[in-house]
Amino acid sequence: MHTLKLRHEITIHALTSKVWKVLTSREYTEQFLLEGELVSDWAVEGPILLEVEDKGQKQIVNKGVIEEIVPGISLRFRISGLQYSNDPVTFQYELIPEEGGIRLILSVEIVFSREELQKMMAANCKMMLQKIKWLAEYS
Question: Fewer beta carbons within 10 Å, N or C terminal of the chain?
Fold first, then answer.
């Protein structure tokens, strides 16, 4: 077993409020996640759920908890049961204002047993950031 800490960032040319909305609104999370959508009340120690739709029915497939939330600045949550790991996976988003936009940093901490999962998880994080960027800038 290995603990992997990934850190990826991207500059988004949009308002902080728009980037935050993309990160926390169901209508957007279902578009940038690889499967499902995040459902939460977005409060510290509140639940966060990953729902998927199967044959017209929504099902909760993963559960977690919000560890830290500062609207427009940072969000950290832990979620269990992802296909990559039997252990909880921690996700953190940080929004840093810079000239002309927002630098969005995505950090992921995951325990995994197979080496190929490292490359897949890194590729998935990069793809999610690209989708978030597109949604914030063009939707």
Answer: N
